[in-house]
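Researcher: Next sequence.
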Amino acid sequence: MKLLHTFARLCVTSGAAAFAVLPWAVSAQPGWPAKPIHFIVPYLPGGTTDIVARIVGQKVSEKLGQPVIVENRAGAGGNVGMDAVAKAAPDGYTIGFGAISTNALNPHVYKAMAFDPRKDFAGISMLGYSTIVLEVPADTPIKSVADLVAFAKKNPGLTYGTAGAGTSMHLSGVLFAQTTQTDLTHVAYKGSNPAINDMIGGHIKVMFDNLPASLPHIQSGKLRALAVAGAARSPSLPDVPTLAEAGLKGYAVDPWFGVFGPAGMPPVVVQKLNQAFVEALAMPEVKEKLLRAGFTPKSSSAAELDALARAEYERLGKTARDAKMTAE
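Model: Next structure:
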């Protein structure tokens, strides 16, 4: 599941981009943007998407000369916020923080979806990749992946928390249970912070989380990182093995994130937004902040993001069916 390689194979030339142009869009105002841009983050404050949106959004605001207002609209694994993006006017003033979950996995997991990610969004730019960390409370006797597998086999139904159903963290837990042949029970929280608080408080024993949200608690000694789920180790946790290194051969989950707007946006607006995000992500200070937080920045053309989302939609459909992943 090496998404970085998948992404590279999917890259197409920027000239291949094609956009549906509405009649009013032909004469799009050259002064765009003329008012603030609302950047919807479909998760609670304090999580990975919120952290990245605020770091990058500030620089995008400076480049476009208008405020970029980050709005957190959590619910249904990110579906509530991205539905608001899908139904917004396609004028570039409402954009959203999409992800492998909202734009590829969720439609195969949730029984009812208010939008179709294949039709209702216009890609703007990749933002990058996050690292998922498998963690436990620091005071637990579980000190390795092997310890956790042994504990899980002795305690069928062991609960693990994630930031929500249908997320890449949920997928990571399902694949872990399948690979280790353990019986785990998923507890879906409404964001990373509530789950982290419950784990620190001793209410859950295991969690799969996006690293930026958990990293401060790992560094402070409250949580213990057992492994990371990606194909490579995280620069933020160089001494923590990947799950494949810890014995789960072939295991790798590398969640990606990108900026999407409603379908039908004028090409000139998509181009201006893309340029602003690409330039912001290339800034050394932005790169440093994101890497320090456990996030790997990577921009793209709009066409590249659209191609990745379409391919991942098909690939993860099979994964979700095989894993029998469902959510209300």
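Model: The chain is about 40% helix and 20% strand. Residues 1-28 have pLDDT under 50 and may be disordered.
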